[in-house]
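In the design runs reported in the main text, the only information available to the sequence generator was the tokenized backbone. The following block is the verbatim input for one such run; it is reproduced so that readers can re-run the procedure and compare outputs position by position.
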């Protein structure tokens, strides 16, 4: 139902679907799944306490409300800032994300509720159909925080070393794509209507071999049999060699071949707009979390974990030498929205526990944090797997440009899950118990 509503809305408002736009939809689908997982987990927990299925559903929806609202509202705040301050693809990403989040909240809090109560009304009332939460063994996550912090610092160090190695080779710290640096555009008529897959498998390899570079963008000219290939800036000799290869190896019409220099599509202004929008949205999210959790340490911990995830994606681009183009900005924004939601779910459990138990010692806070992580572990893993599988399918079935977007996104999803479980709560614990007695 959610997917149908998203497609219908995009069609109704005639929104152009770009790759960053698809990223926004992926993120909102992940959050739609997440909202349902949170609700079901709460219902199962209530059933486990001995309550009836009907009572458990009512209480489950009520208890899940705060985590769902906080997680989605922080992402909506980020989307609004990106719409106000962003430009180009950043704004397109924000619009689709905004639509997706609003619809995902509607389907989770209204449609899912209606479906569950409909099942109950027609006689499906046995608790075995709804599940009973099992008592989960509490693992000592806080006891391993030194290991977690060391692993993250080692990865960050590896990223900076990688940047240094690439810079020393003269190839630059990052592999900036055509969107950022511009290049040469070569258009030719092949007398045949190639599919996107055929272009990727037939034309792109020939061009890559001739110019010695795999950073190539190829697309069809609508309504013709012409194909435009964009590459790095070529010399006159390289242009001549490429044109000859297109004629000899691919049967292009020599008289139809044209070449021209192209400028970058991501201007310095767009880059600065994106950076400013990300910074402002992070500050707004920090203020909202501070306001909702009544503790600036929750907000600070969330933003630190968020920064960690962005850095991890950045490192993926460095070490895998992935082309940094339009999708780089969209990928970073997707991880920011996804990761903050993961963290808030765990913080919501900690907040609930603090209301019931007025902890006074480090040991008491340690128990609360470890238990909160254990209670949300299944939710974190289930949500991450469903979203990861979606992106993995994109990576396996997509063309090169999709794969270059999907790989760092998968890294970001893993980093977001890792930081939420292994870093965010641990950082909050350290900030909260600083100067406090152990027992």
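Verbatim output:
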């Amino acid at each position: 139902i959610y997917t149908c509503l998203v497609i219908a809305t995009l069609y109704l408002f005639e929104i152009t679907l770009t790759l960053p736009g698809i990223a926004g939809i992926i993120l909102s689908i992940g959050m739609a799944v997440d909202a349902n997982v949170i609700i079901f987990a709460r219902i199962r927990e209530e059933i486990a306490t001995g309550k009836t299925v009907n009572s458990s559903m009512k209480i489950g929806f009520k208890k899940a409300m705060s985590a769902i609202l906080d997680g989605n509202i922080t992402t909506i705040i980020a989307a609004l800032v990106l719409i106000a301050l962003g430009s180009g693809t950043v704004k397109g990403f924000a619009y689709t994300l905004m639509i997706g989040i609003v619809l995902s909240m509607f389907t989770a809090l209204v449609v899912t509720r209606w479906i569950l109560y409909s099942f109950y009304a027609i006689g499906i009332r046995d608790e075995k159909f709804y599940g009973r939460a099992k008592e989960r063994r509490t693992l000592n996550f806080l006891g391993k925080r030194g290991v977690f912090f060391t692993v993250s610092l080692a990865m960050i160090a590896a990223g900076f070393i990688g940047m240094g190695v690439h810079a020393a080779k003269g190839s630059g710290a990052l592999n900036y794509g055509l969107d950022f640096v511009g290049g040469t555009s070569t258009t030719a008529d092949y007398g045949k209507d190639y599919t996107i897959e055929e272009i990727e498998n037939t034309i792109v390899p020939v061009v890559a071999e001739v110019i010695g570079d795999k950073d190539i963008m190829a697309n069809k000219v609508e309504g013709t049999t012409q194909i435009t290939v964009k590459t790095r800036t070529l010399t006159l000799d390289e242009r001549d060699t490429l044109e000859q290869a297109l004629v000899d190896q691919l049967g292009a019409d020599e008289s139809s071949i044209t070449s021209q220099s192209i400028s970058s599509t991501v201007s310095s202004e767009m880059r600065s707009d994106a950076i400013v929008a990300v910074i402002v949205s992070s500050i707004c999210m920090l203020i909202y979390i501070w306001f909702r959790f009544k503790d600036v340490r929750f907000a600070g911990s969330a933003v630190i974990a968020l920064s960690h995830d962005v850095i991890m994606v950045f490192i993926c681009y460095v070490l895998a030498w992935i082309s940094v183009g339009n999708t780089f900005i969209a990928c970073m924004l997707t991880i920011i929205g996804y990761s903050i939601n993961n963290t808030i779910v765990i913080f919501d459990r900690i907040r609930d526990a603090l209301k019931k138990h007025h902890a006074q010692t480090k040991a008491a806070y340690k128990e609360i944090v470890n238990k909160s992580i254990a209670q949300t572990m299944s939710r974190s893993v289930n949500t991450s797997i469903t979203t990861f599988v979606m992106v993995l399918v994109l990576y396996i079935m997509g063309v090169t440009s999709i794969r270059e977007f999907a790989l760092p996104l998968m890294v970001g999803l893993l980093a977001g899950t890792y930081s939420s479980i292994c870093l965010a709560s641990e950082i909050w614990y350290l900030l909260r118990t600083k100067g406090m007695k152990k027992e």
